[in-house]
Amino acid sequence: MQNMNQITISNAESIINAPLPTKYSPSTYYPHPFSSHPEKISLRNAQFGASLPQRKENQEITSLEKEQKENLKSDNILLERKGYSIYLINSLKQRIKVSTLIKHMYAWRGYCTKDTSVFSSNPFQITFAAYNKQTILGTITLTIDSDKGLLADQHYKQEVNNFRKKNRIICEVSKLALNFNSNSKEILASLFHVSYIYAHYIFGAQDALIEINPRHALFYKRVMGFRQVGAIRTCQRVNAPAVLLHLDRDHIRDQITTQVGCFARHSKKSIYCYFLSEHEEESVIDRIKQMP
């Protein structure tokens, strides 16, 4: 019988190297929210971050290069801020670290952790993580609706279908976890903003959904403007109560435009003031374009 660890690694590597389907075109143009005269931004390269960087033949690998190979890849950095960076997660080691953080934080809250890893066969599922050097501070996973569906379909099929009937592209955020030692508001804002950039500029997503424990729902309603669209049900994946929340892309764009950097007025009731500046957002978009 094949060793279970070998099976896990084999499956994970096949997921990492899986090509992206072409249902949604990354070359589609979407307006930039900061522009008074919206620019047309083209995000090319359908294989963004989908495959691991390949080493040149006969390249001599020193001990330092071996160490760097095991650590985070600089070409996977999407955002650099004081004290941390946001990475696109696409290596086996990174996925293990992210999954470990999720399991640890979910277990601490008393949730079931069986289905909380970020190893998925869905190529429309993208995971981001915030790191301070080699310490993981937080993570979030973005899933774009496709023929594989969304996690929310398990408990809120009818509610999700109501958005699909409007011919709108839906995305879902899930597997959110923050390290106890992180600056939670800023890390949370950065992870959500990078997810927004991917969802909006690459896939043209118009609606965002999240399943959240009811005791945390008020926070997301207050600081981000989510609204409840599904009743309290038991989420079988984590064996805990959940509600379905929705956030419109236009609301996100409006809040980014008016609140970024306005800490004095908005820091207590919103996290949009911690979102990226226009310059930072453009930098993230440029990095996505340059990814192998």
From TrEMBL:
Residues 98-248 form the N-acyl amino acid synthase FeeM catalytic core domain. It comes from the Bacteria. InterPro entries: Acyl_CoA_acyltransferase, FeeM_cat. Pfam families: FeeM (PF21926). This is Putative long-chain N-acyl amino acid synthase.
